[in-house]
Write a structure and sequence with these properties.
Strand order of the largest sheet: 11-12-15-10-16
Number of domains: 2
Number of strands: 16
Shape: elongated
Number of helices: 21
Oligomer: single chain
CATH class of the largest domain: Alpha Beta
Helix content: 25-40%
CATH superfamily of the largest domain: P-loop containing nucleotide triphosphate hydrolases
Strand content: 15-25%
């Protein structure tokens, strides 16, 4: 007997349909899976056998052949377990197939017949709806994310036996309701009101949030660099619904959703400095999203920046400029989105106390030069703001006066973003993404402004990329003040955030 069950597999962030064809015929007892299965799919034979047996069905002592079509694409993961088991039960006429018309099923089976969650269900649900499928049978833990796709009936199942009861109409399940669309902001556990002092750094991060700019913070240990970075998402605009779905899809494919609904908080990723380049941009035999993709629409924080491997830092240059990263392998090439704010922190020297007013630096000039030289000029150019974060004075630490909360700062950021979107004509657009043509159109300078900027470039030795970043930064400062014209005051403040354009300037 022959049976066919529809399912899907994930490649990159997209999913493609897979037909699980099951043939149970004569011959010596055997269980064969074809169609380029990986090790996890091959091991499904034992899981499927045990799950069928422990769900009060019989495993036929016959030759079972399962084909995963299309056969020219490698299949991986345990999501094919459930459709394989359903196919065997259909082919041996232990259940009827009436409930599978226009349906798709997926899930990992445990030995007792339970159904475990699998990654990428949101992408599979989107592909199912696009392919004309109207019903998705998914693990209960994954049902909420699948229900985000409108026009698709999602049934949450917990066991193989429950699936068979539903398909035969003996215990019809109720479709999972999709959560209502909402652009409401997230409730963060941290707040800028907890930051003592650091008015200069707080102002710089407000500008960065308003324009989507990248930030490099330099200061001694304990100055609060990490504390400031972790609070940056709290002043960014809330995720709109489409952004939330995109971020949720990424985390679903990465297996990091854990059964929750749409992601409402801006992502904040902080990889360790030992992270490899593949872990940062994505990779593997079957490419998976890396940290730059997990930080999409959020913040990627690199603490102890000079301690990262040089090759890991250099691979960041393409996603920073283009907003996506392409991972090429022999069998496939996938593209992951990677539009994020890069925030990095570093010490001014190996011991961390160069320029500190209370502790003496023990490093030699050559040691400091080698340490700072680990950051290449091209990478440094991609930071719009280079800011000093000094030790917090004791008076600021002991004050009981509350600092400005994140909600007040976010209000100003939202007003500035609204001006940018009105100017640039695109939802989510910000000054950091302005092209050269847009810079010439919206960042025009008078003769006095050109003279000022020319002098700053010559004095600091700024590159052409740094020149453009100063103009973008000045435009954001003007937007925070609701000003239409760039003035010398805006340019002067923007230039002061380029004080560390070359690492060796920190030795001065």
């Amino acid at each position: 007997m022959l049976a066919k069950v529809r399912t899907a597999a994930v490649q990159g962030l997209d999913a493609y349909p897979v037909d699980v064809e099951v043939d149970v015929g004569g011959g010596l007892p055997a269980f064969t899976i074809v169609g380029l299965p990986d090790t996890a799919v091959q091991e499904a034979k034992e899981r499927v056998r045990a799950a069928i047996r422990n769900s009060n069905f019989e495993v036929p002592s016959r030759k079972i052949t399962i084909n995963l079509a299309p056969a020219d694409v490698r299949k991986e993961g345990p999501a094919f377990d459930l459709p394989m088991a359903i196919g065997i039960l259909l082919a041996t006429e232990q259940i009827r197939a009436s409930g599978l018309d226009g349906a798709m099923a997926l899930g990992e089976l445990s030995l007792d017949g339970g159904i475990r969650p699998v990654p990428g269900v949101l992408s599979i649900a989107m592909a199912a709806r696009a392919g004309g499928i109207h019903t998705l049978i998914a693990p209960a833990v994954n049902a909420q994310e699948a229900a985000l796709v409108e026009g698709l009936q999602v049934y949450a199942v917990r066991s193989l036996f429950q699936v068979t009861q539903h398909l035969e109409g003996e215990e019809v399940l109720t479709p999972v309701r999709s959560p209502p669309h909402s652009d409401a902001g997230a409730d963060y556990a941290v707040d800028f009101a907890e930051v003592k002092g650091q008015a200069y750094a707080r102002r710089a991060l407000e500008i960065a949030a308003a324009g989507g700019h990248n930030v490099l913070m330099v200061g001694p240990p304990g100055a609060g660099k990490t504390m400031l970075a972790r609070r940056l998402p709290t002043i960014l605009p809330p995720l709109i619904w489409d952004e939330a779905i995109e971020v949720t899809r990424i985390y679903s494919v990465a297996g990091r959703l854990n059964g929750h609904g749409p992601v409402r908080e801006r992502p904040f990723r902080s990889p360790h400095h030992s992270t490899s380049s593949a872990a940062l941009v994505g990779g593997g035999t079957v490419p998976r999203p890396g940290e730059v993709t997990l930080a999409h629409h959020g913040v990627l924080f690199l603490d102890e920046l000079p301690e990262f491997h040089r090759d890991a830092l250099e691979v960041l240059r393409q996603p920073l400029e283009e907003g996506f990263v392409t991972v090429a392998r022999v069998q496939s090439t996938v593209t992951f989105p990677s539009r994020f704010m890069l925030v990095a922190a570093m010490n001014p020297c190996p011991c961390g106390y160069h320029g500190d007013g209370l502790r003496e630096c023990l490093c030699t000039p050559s040691q400091i030069a080698r340490y700072l030289g680990r950051i290449s000029g091209p990478l440094l150019d991609r930071f719009d703001l280079h800011i000093e974060v000094p030790r917090v004075p004791s008076g600021d630490l002991m004050t009981t006066l509350p600092a400005e909360p994140s909600t007040d700062i976010r209000t100003r950021v939202l007003r500035a973003r609204a001006r940018q979107q009105e100017r640039l004509g695109s939802l989510g657009a910000c000054n950091a993404g302005m092209t050269g043509r847009l810079l010439r159109k919206y960042c025009r300078l008078d003769e006095e402004g050109r003279t000022f900027l020319r002098a700053a470039i010559e004095r600091l030795g700024l590159s052409a990329r740094a020149h453009d970043r100063i103009l973008r930064l000045a435009r954001t400062i003007a937007d925070l003040e609701a000003a239409d014209v760039l003035t010398n005051a805006h340019l002067a403040e923007a230039v002061q955030y380029r004080a560390f354009d070359r690492p060796l300037r920190l030795l001065a």
